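S., here's the first fold you wanted:
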Amino acid sequence: MNEGLRRAGARLGMAVWLLGVWLLLWGRVDALTLTGGVVAVLVAYAVSRLPTVPMVTRVRPLPLAVAAAEFAWDLLVSSVVIGWHALRAPGRVRGAIVEVEARSRSELVLLAVTTSVSLRPGTLLVDLDRDRSLLRIHGMPVRDPDEADSTREGVLRTERRLMRALVTPDDARRTEDI
């Protein structure tokens, strides 16, 4: 698909989303509300740089189900680990900021990865350098470089699962070698 056409489609997706929110806020659909919404969307695009809606070229159901199941398992394990440390020695639990260089360039996949990481007990997104796809994650417990590497590998595993499940134009070539 042509890059310009894909960008126009993504911008149109964001415009439709904004118009839908406008209509929900007003609580009714009539000619005046619809016209006002279109004007509001056009003004919003004229005065700001709105993000585009990330495009997904293909959703793979089986890898998505695997990613969801592994996320549920990660939630259980991390909850038990953090709970154990909180009960056993709450004052001695150490954390660290771990840098993770993501392979994905897709905003959608990075959003899914950072949301997944932040929902798990013991990990939290601190910073995202989108230009370099560099994530800074606060992880607990992290007492030594091996545990930092384990945290980093956990984030990269999550990213690989999501890249397999959600194929985007930005990552289409990268998913073949994962």
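And the second, which I think is the more interesting of the pair:
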Amino acid sequence: MEPDWQDRAFHHHIATLIDALDGPDFWTRATRVIERFVAFDNWVALVFVRDRAPLVCAESPMPDGTVDLLFRAYLEGMYQLDPFYINACERPRAGLITLAEVAPDNFRMTDYYQRYFKSNIIGDEVQFNVPLDARRTLIFSLGAKHHYTERDVAQFAMFAPWVIALMRQRLAYEPGVAADEAAGAPQSDAVAERAAAEVLELDYARRFEAVTQQSGRTPLTAREVEVVRQSLSGFSTRAIAERLEISFETVRAHKKHIYAKLGVSSQSELFALFYEPNGREGG
């Protein structure tokens, strides 16, 4: 329906949402208000953390009441390839974030997109982001089987101020999400971004080291780990070269060495090795 700021029902819903701030159904009520104006198919409230798996605040239930196995796989490791997660770690900011803003140039060609995003979210996604400290961002994600129109995105942007304000207020009632005292004093943007990149690389390095040790493969160097991370996330060879400030040919050489060390011959095999349990067997 078209928004009508004289619509008493809308104001009633906002009032009940405010009343629900300290209750278990806050996130569900928030989705009910928004879906009056924009259609979406799934939602989740998470806290992105740079050096560990996201914390789940609430998620949309499966239609048949079963466990969402794809979402479990996401929490077990594939979140590392999520463009929203990567963006929140590298450049945290409050506001509405769209997939078009954060997706790498080759995102739709990745195994992450084909095996998780396309199957679980299907078409499009937006997130409302609230950075909590130097390491964590509270996010409220709305996914759709269709692509959001310009009108849809404009509607989300119109709602962003009150959605984000309520998300900030909700923090006091989310177990385990209170301000992290270990986060330390505020950092400059440059220092914070550098620290974020270092922690994100360490997160990948730990995972890749564990997998290579388990499978008996040759360990990767820190630079090779970073090339794998960006490649699996959807950055093209040229984009990786620009991001790492190295030449196109150097990136290609790194990829050749990576494939030889790990005994793989394709991007899909590389993805399977690090993100699918069966892919680690055999080598």
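Why I say that: Strands lie at 42-49, 52-59, 95-98, 124-131, 136-144. The chain has twelve helices and five strands.

Talk tomorrow,
H.
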